[in-house]
Amino acid sequence: MRINNNSTVLVVNTDGKTEKMELNKARVLARNLGLDLVEVDNNGVFKIMDRGKWLYEQKRAKKKSNRTAHTKEIKFGMKIEKHDFETKIRHIQKFVDKGFDVLITVEMRGRERKYPQAAITKLNEVLSLLDGSVRYDGIKRSGVSVNVLTHPVSKREIHGNKDSQKPNNQRAKDGDAIRGSNGQKND
Q1: pLDDT tens-digit profile of 23-65?
Q2: Taking the domain 71-186, which CATH number applies?
Q3: How many CB atoms lie within 10 A of CB 46?
Q4: Which residues pair with 72 in a beta bridge?
């Protein structure tokens, strides 16, 4: 719609009320308020607002929605020292408290690859220290590592809401089958 200076347009005020007025009057009103008159619809709908602030908020909301890193990864070696182990547990707990999913990986090097049960034992030790604050589906082996994806426990699950999903916190035991990266059972 082509708008002349004397055209009657629909104007949304700062308090959200809609009025019909001439375009020139709307410009004067916006200028007196120290704000901008912004066309929000091609059919002659204008809004009185701070355009710079609005653009900033739009840009910020777009950046916030583009964040995709909702999963953090913590890697353990088979020969990790006690202090390093405790530090990594604290890091996992911080990530879980912030609402991130955490992929916990135990990597096996060299001869360690012959004994995946030792890696599963290490992973079970980590999971036992996090018991109650995370839920997980199962332990998976992929190549030279054994990993598990943990999810933070919601407040509903902590307080025992009947609607909540029961976490499947079954730890792998010696002799249990491990699912590989292709979903097949490995013995």
Answers
A1: 888 889 899 999 998 888 878 888 999 989 888 988 888 887 7
A2: 3.30.110.10
A3: 21
A4: 102
d(CA 23, CA 5): 6
Give the domain ranges of the chain. 8-65, 71-186
3-state secondary structure of 105: strand
pLDDT, tens digit, for every residue of 83-92?
999 999 999 9
Residue 78 CB: number of other CB atoms within 10 A? 17
Burial readout 117-147 (b: 16 or more C-beta within 10 A, e: otherwise): eebbbbbbebbeebeeebbbeebbbeeebbb
CB 135 within 8 A of CB 157: yes
Can you give the pTM of this predicted structure? 0.52
Q: Tell me the one-letter amino acid at 65.
A: S
Q: Map tokens 């929000």 to a residue.
A: 40
Question: Looking at the chain, how many residues does it have?
Answer: 187
Name the CATH architecture for the domain at 8-65.
Answer: Roll (3.10)
- Please, are residues 77 and 122 in contact by the beta-carbon 8 Å criterion? no
CA distance 138 to 147: 9
Tokens of 29: 């009103």
**Cα separation, 107 vs 83, whole angstroms:** 18
